[in-house]
Amino acid sequence: MITGGRKLEGTLAISGAKNAALPLIAATLLTGDTLELRNVPELADVVSMMRLVQRLGVASTYLPGEPGRVAFHCQELLSTTAPYDLVRKMRASVLVLGPLLARGGEAIVSMPGGCAIGTRPIDLHLSGMERLGAIIELSQGYVTARAPAGGLKGARIELTQPSVGATENLLMAAATAKGTTTIIGAAREPEIVDLALLLSSMGAAIEGAGTSTITIEGVAQLHGAVHSIMPDRIEAGTYVMAAGITGGRLHITGGDLGLLGGAREKLEEAGLQFTDTADGFAVSVASEGLRGTDVMTRPYPGFPTDLQAQFMALMCNAEGASMITETIFENRFMHVPELARMGAQITIHGGSALVRGQGARGTTLRGAPVMATDLRASVSLVLAALAAEGETEINRIYHLDRGYEHLEQKLQAVGACVERIP
Ligand SMILES: CC(=O)N[C@H]1[C@@H](OP(=O)(O)OP(=O)(O)OC[C@H]2O[C@@H](n3ccc(=O)[nH]c3=O)[C@H](O)[C@@H]2O)O[C@H](CO)[C@@H](O)[C@@H]1O
Ligand SMILES: C=C(OP(=O)(O)O)C(=O)O
């Protein structure tokens, strides 16, 4: 339940990144030594991933001293099967495929299926594993992948799309494959770099992470390491827009402005201004106010699809029109009808949404009961509600718990009137 109309002011700390934590937890299957991860965020998806790797043989213990410090130990694999009941909860479960194949020679993983934002096939993960020598069979909703006698072999793999998940799965599979693997057309997201950093500190030989060509020299085995998970750039971008839509000013700590990539430029074009600080950055709205700005989602360093819904909410309060084009997922406009319930004027034209911003005349967003449909759609409703006149009741907020650590506490601390109704 959110009562809108308050400017957000104060300091807000960014948590560890969900999209880095998930592959990093999958990577704990790769070694028999202890692996310590720090800055692990408390999120529903992290719990789901920890449950899955636990089923496969990973013991995990929260360590004292600081929150989010977890020791993982996988003495031996107890199973090579990722069952439907655990995989269906979270698509990123498919990231255990590469590690299981590398360490156990076999992976039987439930097909993750589509989700609210699109069909989300895994063909690139599978064809990449085949290039490394795996034999793949699909049967009864499961992928069975078997490494050849003698293990996976390095290969040249061309990805026809820069898939984040496929790049991560292949990095983990290739780390201990025999010989050299080259991934051409790799995804360049910062979370790929974080995974490569962890694997390198475990003994892997990886070059080019963060560029579209990654080379991996297979090593015989990986060992333990200590690694701190990178800050969540999508969470940071979301709170930047919370400051923007309420006309407030936030000091974002632990978040790195550089990680926003091309999104920073678009946010500036839309009227936000940033200043670097010793431990992060500050954001506020420039004196001219928010301006309608066109955006097209692209792989990193382009504007991230995971910030598209939030940007759309922001543009509802800008002066002038914005054309927002989604190119990564085919069905990522579920927030549009819900924002419309709050008075937003948005029309969809194929993969683009035309937002008629109302900024110059003050917000026309009004509180209403709305429904969360997926993680980022949900948070776009939170942003709209923070700026709207009156009360907004957002239902099905379990989606938010997948990716926003302590959302209501963080917002309350900077002046929002938000309450979780049990
Ligand atoms: C846990 C995690 O990190 N999730 C992120 C990851 O998802 P995820 O790794 O699933 O996204 P991908 O980069 O793989 O998907 C990008 C595009 O490639 C297509 N595709 C992907 C794989 C494949 O085998 N075949 C294929 O056609 C997808 O349908 C989509 O259209 O990157 C997305 C794109 O930045 C983000 O929105 C997600 O938040
Ligand atoms: C789409 C997202 O996540 P996932 O890939 O885990 O579904 C997201 O974080 O916005």
Overall description:
With 422 residues, the protein is α/β, with parallel strands linked by helices. It has two domains: 200 residues, Enolpyruvate transferase domain (UDP-n-acetylglucosamine1-carboxyvinyl-transferase, Chain); 199 residues, Enolpyruvate transferase domain (UDP-n-acetylglucosamine1-carboxyvinyl-transferase, Chain, Alpha-beta prism), CATH 3.65.10.10. 31% of the residues lie in helices and 25% in strands. A four-stranded mixed sheet has the order 22-23-1-24. A four-stranded mixed sheet has the order 2-15-17-16. The longest helix has 14 residues. The radius of gyration is 22 Å and the shape is elongated. The mean pLDDT is 96. Bound molecules: uridine-diphosphate-N-acetylglucosamine (UD1) and phosphoenolpyruvate (PEP).
